[in-house]
Amino acid sequence: VCTIALRKIPLHYLQRQEQKAGTVNTVLSRHGADWTADTILDRIVYVLQNYDKVDSEKVHLDANLTNDLGLDSLDIVEVCYHVERSMFTWISDDERETIETVRDIWEIVMHKLLYKFA
Length: 118
Prior knowledge:
There is one protein chain. Helices cover 50% and strands 5% of the residues. The protein has five helices and two strands. The chain has helices spanning 11-21, 37-49, 73-87, 93-98, 102-115, and strands at residues 28-30, 33-35. The relative contact order is 0.17. It has a two-stranded antiparallel ribbon. With 118 residues, it is mainly α.
């Protein structure tokens, strides 16, 4: 999958998948998306699994972006960009420099989407 295609991850697709699975749990409604800890993690995993340099089978919550997934610093910047775009949030440069695992991205985004706006 080309990384350019990730720039517009369809929100309606993931929402339909969540509705089919019956996993929609409204915690926060922002830009038409209902965010929970699980849906945030699902979105981050989706972005990483569709990133062309990542083996989708290796993506899990505690995967190290550099050692386990083989990403360099520029790849991490791109992944953060795709996460920001797909969830209408932001990750600052200072926060991005601290990111080492999928869990780090998840905690930053959860803090922004759930705790600051709840």
